[in-house]
Amino acid sequence: MKIPLLIIALILFCFTVHSQQYEFGKVSEVEINQETHALDPEAVASVIYKKGSLSMVYQQGWKYVYEVEARIKIYKNEGFKHATISVPLYRIGAGNNEIFSGLKAFTHNSDGGKITKDRVKNEGIFDEDYNEFWDFKKFTFPNVKEGSVLEYSYKITSPYIVGLPEFYFQAEIPVDFAEYTLKLPEYLGYKSYSKGYISTKRDQSSSFDDFTFTYVPKQNAGNTALGSLKTQFSTVRYTLFTTTYSVKDVPKLISEDYVNNIDNYLTSIKHELEWVKMPETKTKTFSQTWEDVVKAIYKSDKFGKELNQKDYFESELSPLLSSAATNKEKVNIVYEFVKQKMSWNGNYGYYTKDGLKSAYKNRTGNVAEINLMLTAMLRHAGLIANPVLVSTKSWGIPLFPTQMGFNYVVSAVELGKEIILLDATNPFSSPNILPERTINWFGRIIRNDESSLQIDMMPKNASRTIVNMDVKINSTGSIEGRIRNTHTDHSALSFRNKNADVNEKSYINELQNRFVSMDIDEYSIQNKIDPYKPIVETYKFKKENAYDKIGDKIYFSPLFFFAKTKNPFTAEKRELPIDFKYPISDTYMINITLPDGFKVESMPESTALELPEEIGKFGFMISNTENNIQLRVTSEINVSIVPASYYETLKKYFKIMVEKETEKVVLTKI
């Protein structure tokens, strides 16, 4: 039996990948010449291997040394984005920052049968400031082309041993091999947290090593001489525990539509310090509850202490509050005062940087300075107001209690049993209508007594889009009419964020292009910048070639250009939850006037669909009287996030929706 050469080549490549011992700098001709990935021919790039190793060193206290090396294959131009690597680094001040060192990075190419190597130079290395506590070290590979192999290694030395770096075994491209080795002395106890859908192999071993530490002997009876209490040095032999996690042939995790942050679902592992037991000392526990975390944050001078100051704003705010008749009026007065007074500088974080007084004076600040200021002012108004710690969508979902699990803070006002959430960084936000970045599962409210409560950040009320359209069908092939379009809540916030700075002419051009060569006239908009009222657009329109005419018959969708023509869910299967951001309610009420001399020959039947567990529903109600057609279409998704287990049902649901909305009305001559 003859075996095709292509299959032999793939078998040999797979065998080579899984059998070789990877060595940095030793790029093979097989890797250079590979044109497609053996297991995923459509991949734009792949990780040939990735290794992480973390060990501890003792230098007047424990530090971790984290070393990473990886090799990436680029197959297509679309894979070029993987030629820029971003490494997060924690910083808190000179002498306490994490140290990035030992960078080696090269681009390998084939040139006339020879393998060439281009080094990443200083001009390809840069720093990006994320907030007061985090930087990103970034480096970009030179001379990247289809077929390139990229290689890099670096080291991070850090004194922050409470939370170790998260190691990712999976990516948006296939990973042929990934390995993470963790070496911990017997004096440090960690617990691990993993996420994702891929199982990892775990190997453990132990060995012996020596290290020198310092200590001060305990004072006891008969041991009172001053010399006996001097710092002592001791060298001891200890047990070193090594754990190695590894995986092979990890499929890419595709970034699909309706996913909030794909990093939340990539297979990874992270470790948190649980206890320390040094020689001659008692065990010190570090395992924290969320209560421990919020108390530590609240006690900081850059958080809790700031909430007690009011002298910098009292003279300006108090006169405004004198006109408030209800607590809700007080909330709105304070909220609008802060939004108009302050401008967000784009920096995240839950600690202030320059302090609330300085931020108030300069009229600009980070997230904490604006929203802690808001909280302080709400308390001054006599309201029960407290900060809420949040992890934004881009930051991810905290896996365990840790201060690093949060990167944002908003404010909450308690009016009886009602909790109102506020974020003054966005001028178009309104009570309980927060910027999308904050809508990420749960936050944690911190009260004055340092107690805390988990709070659901997901919106409960549906954001509505209501379209009223009167349309006349002309026998010449055109349609014309008037549209009234209303947006509420997050739908209105999204509209304002996108279009607040867009002039009317530009917006009308974009609208005309969106509906493909439609002429718009008499456009008007109400409440464009008023976040407490719905957006209301009205305009006249005319569109040529708006339907199909064959012989004496006219064919058109009664939703016209508002019809959904594509199912957003087409993948065979899905492992990730479906994120609609917030509950949605869309309503289309359309009145259609038929052209003279025509009548309805056939039209779609009315129908109604419901998703299980009241997740959503769809209604399509159509009727015909004389020369008019009345249509009412409603579509509701009642939850922000739908579990992946409902994917097949949701896929069929949207398929039926698309089919129904694109069905044709058929008119025939009388």
What does this entry show, briefly?
This protein is an alpha+beta fold and 670 residues long. It is built from ten helices and 36 strands. 16% of the residues lie in helices and 40% in strands.
Query: Regarding CATH, which class of the largest domain?
Result: Mainly Beta
Uncertain segments: 1-19
The first-to-last residue Cα distance is 71 Å
**Kindly state the mean pLDDT as a whole number?**
91
Count of runs of 4 or more consecutive helical residues: 10
Percentage of residues in helical conformation: 10-25%
Number of domains as seen in the coordinates: 3
Main sheet record: 8 strands, mixed
Q: What is the rounded Rg? A: 31 Å
Class by SSE composition: alpha+beta
User: For the largest beta sheet, what order do the strands appear in spatially?
Assistant: 5-4-8-2-1-10-13-12
Q: What would you note in describing this structure?
A:
There is one protein chain. With 670 residues, the chain is α+β, with helices and mostly antiparallel strands. It has three domains: 5-284, Immunoglobulin-like (Sandwich), CATH 2.60.40.3140; 291-456, Roll (C8orf32 fold); 463-669, Jelly Rolls (Sandwich), CATH 2.60.120. The protein is 16% helix and 40% strand. The chain is built from ten helices and 36 strands. The strands form eight sheets. It has an eight-stranded mixed beta sheet. The protein has an eight-stranded mixed beta sheet with strand order 25-26-24-23-30-34-33-32. A five-stranded antiparallel beta sheet has the order 20-19-18-21-22. A hairpin with a 2-residue loop joins β33 (616-625) and β34 (628-637). The longest helix has 15 residues, at 5-19. The N and C termini lie far apart (71 Å).
